Amino acid sequence: MSTETEAPVVVSVDLGARSYDIVIGPAILGSAGVEIARRIPGTRAAIVTDANVAAAHLRTLRDALSAAGIGHEVVTIAPGEKSKSFATLQDTVDAILAARLERGDTVIALGGGVVGDLAGFAAAIVRRGMNFVQAPTSLLAQVDSSVGGKTGINTGHGKNLVGVFHQPRLVLADTAALDTLPPREFRAGYAEMAKYGLIDRPEFFAWLENNWKDIFAGGAARVEAIARSCRAKADVVARDEHEVGDRALLNLGHTFGHALEAATCYDSARLVHGEGVAIGMALAHRFSARLNLASPDDAERVEAHLREVGLPTRLSDVPGGLPDAEALLAYIAQDKKVARGALTFILTRGIGQAFIAKDVPISQVLSFLEENLAP
Amino acid sequence: MSTETEAPVVVSVDLGARSYDIVIGPAILGSAGVEIARRIPGTRAAIVTDANVAAAHLRTLRDALSAAGIGHEVVTIAPGEKSKSFATLQDTVDAILAARLERGDTVIALGGGVVGDLAGFAAAIVRRGMNFVQAPTSLLAQVDSSVGGKTGINTGHGKNLVGVFHQPRLVLADTAALDTLPPREFRAGYAEMAKYGLIDRPEFFAWLENNWKDIFAGGAARVEAIARSCRAKADVVARDEHEVGDRALLNLGHTFGHALEAATCYDSARLVHGEGVAIGMALAHRFSARLNLASPDDAERVEAHLREVGLPTRLSDVPGGLPDAEALLAYIAQDKKVARGALTFILTRGIGQAFIAKDVPISQVLSFLEENLAP
């Protein structure tokens, strides 16, 4: 991976016949038509996007497709997590069918995680599977949700409980598109980036500690950081595409994080996903120290770095208060990483040494939560 | 395959890690608990069924599950094709989530093709994929829709345009359950059975010509005929799971058939799927003879056998009249087996010699339809 030039960096996800490239670089959206036509000759496309992203980036993508001779329609959904619903899924599916797209045609997701998860699910189920291309425009989507094939929607029973695995044919991560992100949203994506270091790449976490300002400022370190994150995720996905084993490591910080998102009613004014993950990762490290699995020094180092970039790390950082420990535990138990009633957590032996802990005693989770909720 | 005893016959579908058994026999539903527990130890289950099937077979299945210690909930949908909708899918998904089933648990479809297609789709998307078991109670479902992993629902744009491939872990075909089927529905399933002979097993078609009465009467030939049909389908599915090639042969009779179903508004009082397929197969053979690909004698032999068992074979057999040739062609073009604007048909060089014909000229289809619509 070069950080010397503006040439795009390509990270390959190795999944046999379903392998694909993640092409990362500033202004890569302007090359979308060429990149897609090279991989899916003769395709037509449906762009799924939301109104906010459309205002900033749709023109660029449409021009790029037209220049490459790719006929296309646009499906615009409402911005926000509420669009990850059966109703919006049905609308999107109907719009794709109304455009008379065929099995060999392509759905392009232009936007953040919500657009990607919804559009990918629609691509997976129209005609039992169309081609899918991700053009993520948020940092979270570029380093996490656009890679690995998870798609889905939310239901009243919880987030992402309905969906399928459907790998994209191509991911186009335009790093310049991140310049327009609100700082809070950029930070939230950064939490997932730090996660890869914490799972099994301690040298990457150390590099982030030294380079985070350049990443936020949009310097050469940004492309490198995104590429290294995608490489980390691609390696895990290639090992365990359908999350029957190792892939669960990517849930570091997510079991606590999802519970906090649920407890705040997915109200992004209070907590966004990456913030939940940041608190969750800090808690996972503290919990591991509490269980004498890891040194408290590592937990403090993790917390210090996350706080330095402006991320929350404590339950008391969640504005508006939280329910009690029992209620938080109930949210954790409804999370989909529950196997046969036992609680599964991603714990750690130190920075870069995360592991899957099955059968974590509920009583210990409960008392840990009680301690952390205490004023 | 034995026809001498009442012991169940097992047909294996070879799909590597996703291989599964089709267990065929009278009263096999009474062994469902044992068969499932052996393959998916510790599972809990949601039975998806419709009110009609529940009245006839739900007690048997529930008792079998309980005897094997499999805790379960029941989700009952309205009988009929209208249940293959987004609304019923959402209700079914919600019911499975409300039962707090986990990823390792099982959705069991007890019913015909509608229940199987809907329940399989729900199983595929809840928690990105639960275990799925088919307990087909119609002949059509036993010899066709329960095998091969196609799941889906209908939309205003057409039938089965939304869905995924999700292979079952087990298929339990209770041949005695067919005793309660209305004769018209049994005949409709028989059309799919005859299809396997017409595709590439001329000796099976000849055997059906000699044994159909025993199959209808429920004799030993019934189990054998269902097993041979499942074997035929399993072979095609194993070669081409996701229908990128050979599997399209299974659409023999279906391109015309789907158009007729659409033209009659999926009104089962006028035409059920298997009847559409019977007419479609007769048309495909006549069309092939008309194109000088096959002998007209074969087309006559196919028509004679289908008429002998009581199936329709001509456009004029559809009660209530049909739209004109142009309109039928439009239904054909919306069918999902259209690739890049060219019409793809399954044609034949004679009984047991079907092949995939791409780029069939629209003008020839149109004039053939006009001839067949003429009084």
Automatic annotation (TrEMBL), chains A, B:
Position of the signal peptide: none
A Pfam family the protein falls into: DHQ_synthase
Domain 3-dehydroquinate synthase N-terminal: 75-187
UniProt GO molecular function: 3-dehydroquinate synthase activity
Catalytic reactions of this protein: 7-phospho-2-dehydro-3-deoxy-D-arabino-heptonate = 3-dehydroquinate + phosphate
Residue ranges occupied by any 3-dehydroquinate synthase C-terminal domain in the UniProt entry: 189-338
Family annotation (NCBIfam families): aroB
Family named by the database record: Belongs to the sugar phosphate cyclases superfamily. Dehydroquinate synthase family.
Protein name stated in the entry: 3-dehydroquinate synthase
Lineage: Bacteria, Pseudomonadati, Pseudomonadota, Alphaproteobacteria, Hyphomicrobiales
Protein encoded by which gene: aroB_2
